[in-house]
Write a structure and sequence with these properties.
Helix content is 23%, strand content 21%. With 168 residues, the chain is an alpha+beta fold. Strand 4 (68-69) and strand 5 (74-75) form a beta hairpin.
């Protein structure tokens, strides 16, 4: 299982991961009602996860993943959490009819390592996990990956065509 090794101290310092100001879009797929039954096992948590009310930076109200322990700033499912959590700041998106792994520059960790570092992790994910998904499992990821992209995300690695003609 591929888990990007984001330094714990950096996560505590940042305070953005696992806290969501826009839970309809920017949340782990496993917390979204439309994803619960559709997602391949790779993108589901080992137990149902949900969002609960909490506070973020500057005490602003946010939704927090219930697998996150605010007292330790750690995920209680770490290493067994959904792929979209394990890969962050790499994000699965769709652009021009292709599934891609893109890099979110808003994560401070994305600025701490060279691009080649994230490319290597993206290739590991492609080779060890993505390559094992069946075509119908991949197609179920399409609506969520389409909604996930942001213009400032930097393309890292193509994972292949979506098969969706309207996505081109």
């Amino acid at each position: 299982m591929v888990v990007l090794p984001v330094p714990e101290a950096l996560c505590r310092e940042c305070g953005l991961c696992c806290r969501f100001s826009d839970p309809e879009v920017l949340t782990p797929w496993a917390t979204r009602p439309e994803g619960e039954t559709l997602l391949p096992a790779l993108f589901r948590a080992e137990r149902p996860i949900a969002l609960v009310s909490g506070t973020g930076k500057m005490n602003l109200p946010v939704q927090v993943c219930d697998a996150f322990d605010p007292s330790t700033s750690r995920c209680t499912l770490w290493g067994r959490n959904p792929a979209d959590c394990r890969l962050y700041p790499l994000v699965l998106v769709v652009r021009n009819g292709f599934f891609l792994l893109a890099l979110d520059p808003d994560c401070p960790f994305s600025q701490k390592k060279p691009f080649s570092y994230f490319l290597e992790w993206a290739e590991r994910f492609r080779d060890l996990e993505w390559s094992r998904l069946r075509e119908e499992e991949i197609s179920r990821l399409l609506p969520l990956a389409e909604a996930e992209d942001r213009p400032h995300y930097r393309e890292v690695l193509s994972l292949g065509e979506t098969g969706c003609k309207k996505c081109r």
